[in-house]
Amino acid sequence: MKSFLFLPALFVTSALLAQQRDTIFLERIVTDTPDPLYHDIFIDSTAAVRNKLTSFAFHHFDSTTYFDQLAALRPLKKASISALKDVPRKWIALYKWKNKYYLYSPSDFGNHSKVEMNDSTMVDFSMEGPQPSSYKKITRISATKLVIERANYWKGDRVEVQIIDTAKGIAVFSFGATKYRKGYRVLMVDAAKAHLFPTIVNYCETDKQGEFEFDELNFATLLKAKPTRKK
After folding, report:
1. Sign (positive/negative) of CA torsion 173, 219, 190, 55?
2. Is 103:198 a contact under the CB 8 Å cutoff?
3. How far apart are CA 231 and CA 37, in angstroms?
4. Is 6 helix (H, G, I), strand (E, B) or coil?
5. In angstroms, rounded to a whole number, what is the distance separating the alpha carbons of residues 104 and 97?
6. What are phi and psi of 144, to 5 degrees?
7. Which long-range contacts (CB under 8 A, 24 or more apart) does 158-161 make?
8. What is the pLDDT of residues 14-58, one digit of tens each?
9. Segments in the chain forming alpha helices (H)
């Protein structure tokens, strides 16, 4: 009887050890004194972290920020269905490291960039929480490119969305300059296709850590390349 009871325990132990062996640690710091600290950066392929990255749910303070800014944008104008036809509505940041693409779970989750396009608003998620913009005009340049002119709390801007890989749902978002910031670009992926990429996780339960350094992207080259289409 004892041998049969031992088998499940052995199986569980083996599974845990196998999981640890499958985890690729990029950095790991464990200290006991003077201040206990556990910090690691690792590559994760499970759904647990990815589901958090692709969640667009509002928390209490998120709702306050969003609706306060939304009130100043009314009346809202609905986007034409044709302008957003076949365009994914939810996007999250994508990164490149050693010539491979990754999702990223940052040490400070406020650094996780994501964008949602609804029928009447476009929402930017950033360190300040979800910030809505109303549509002024949406122009469909081609099947893989659109230009969104919008109004918002930070005095408006123009966003160009150019899909560079339709099979994997990868796009370059070019955000125009506003009264408060310069223009910038972000590589993003359709949230529905985020499962195609592993996640680099920057984990420390007790302290904020410096963010992982990814490869610098050559956006000019990415935008010039012929879009990779579905096969």
Report:
1. negative
2. yes
3. 48
4. helix
5. 11
6. -120, 10
7. 159/122, 161/87
8. 333 334 445 799 998 888 878 888 999 999 999 999 999 999 998
9. 2-22, 47-53, 60-71, 219-224
Give the rounded distance of the alpha carbon of 225 from its chain centre.
23
Instruction: Tell me the pLDDT tens digit for each residue of 105-158.
Output: 999 999 999 999 998 899 999 888 899 999 999 999 999 999 999 998 877 789
Strand order in the sheet with 199-203: 24-31, 37-44, 199-203, 100-105, 95-97
Token pair, residue 178, equals 């506003």
d(CA 14, CA 9) in angstroms, rounded, equals 9
The dihedral formed by the CA atoms of 187, 56, 70 and 122, expressed in degrees to the nearest 10 = 30
Question: What sign for the dihedral angle of Cα 112, 47, 205, 200?
Answer: negative
When computed from its CA atoms, the radius of gyration of the chain, rounded to whole angstroms, is 21
DSSP state of 228: B
Cβ distance 95 to 213 under 8 Å? no
Q: Which residue has the tokens 């005009």?
A: 137
